Amino acid sequence: MARRERFPIVRARRWVQVAFLVVVVAIGAQFTHWALALLAGRQPALGRPGGVEGFLPISALMSLRLWLAGDGVHPIHPAGLAILLGVVAMSLVLAKSFCSHVCPVGLLSEWLGRLGQRLLGSNLAVPRWLDWPLRALKFLLLGFFVWATWVVMDLPGTRAFLDSPYNKVADVKMLLFFAEPSRLTIAVLGVLVVGSIFVRDLWCRYLCPYGALVGLLGRFAPLKVTRDQATCTDCAKCTKVCPARLPVHRLVRVASVECTSCQDCVAACPIKDCLAVRPPRWASSRVVRPIRAVALAALVWVAVAGAFRVSGHWRSEIGQDEFARRLQEIDSPLYTHVGGLAASESPTPPELRSSHAPR
């Protein structure tokens, strides 16, 4: 395959990643301006962007539970549910494509990994005997979150949490957490950043519960990277470039939960259509061109988010005045996990709430 033919395969996905990163940065800047203005007692010039709820995965997971139970879209953080369902839809179409096409952390992890390659010549390869147990950590974390929100907590408890004062300002609490990080937070982030330079995709590979979820869902995706055994020359170039360290040149259909459908292997293959994204053989033998696969993955997510917007399920029902009032008392115990669930939403004056809320 000529270099000019491979170029779009490699670059198209990265341009999509960069586009989503720009959107995320813009959302973060707008949200920060909005929150800081209200915390200072001023009216912000910009509104609260619903997209910030993408950083509230636990709330979205609990909203998903209520939605599946027939409760409809919970009105506090509806955009969070929309974003989660978009991620699920992507993963059920093109296996684990969220990680390699949309996730900004995935893009930053790739950049850090490439920085490590330039500095060290190559990234460090964790030994197989240690690599596999470490990969299990993200599934354990996912299991814990599902257990805590879907097993331990019943439906009334889920509703109570989503309606709680804490959940209503969870996005601002998150912002303040990173705006004023503790030494431990800085140390953990530093380890992850430095570690990602040495070990490619450190967070994504070993610790990301979101990646574990979409990896499991990707097992059901009809579109996966598939190898044509008849034309394969066993050159193993696909295996050498695989960021998940999968033996692509020995697989007929790459169905591993670690494959992100990045198609780096497709770009590296010297034989046209030997490696390609294909549906199952029983459905069709048609090849999905790499750029079309990239576009499809991105459009699926956009379509789900757009459907929520059109149907009026994107913006939180909490108005600006209520946000302004709550953010002025955000340091109250009412806005903690325990306080938010235990304290009543009575008209008790803010100055008295602290003494009555549980500590």
**Which range best describes the helical content: under 10%, 10-25%, 25-40%, 40-55%, 55-70% or over 70%?**
55-70%
Radius of gyration: 22 Å
Count of β-strands: 2
Give helix and strand order, one letter per element, not per position.
HHHHHHHHHHHHEHHEHHHH
Give the biggest beta sheet.
Answer: 2 strands, antiparallel
Total separate domains: 2
Give the termini distance in whole angstroms: 65 Å
> Spans of 5+ residues with little confidence (pLDDT < 50)?
1-5, 346-359
Number of continuous helical runs: 18
Strand order of the largest sheet: 1-2
Task: Tell me the overall shape.
Answer: globular
The proportion of strand residues reads under 5%
User: Could you report the average pLDDT, rounded to the nearest whole number?
Assistant: 87
Q: Which structural class matches the secondary elements?
A: mainly alpha
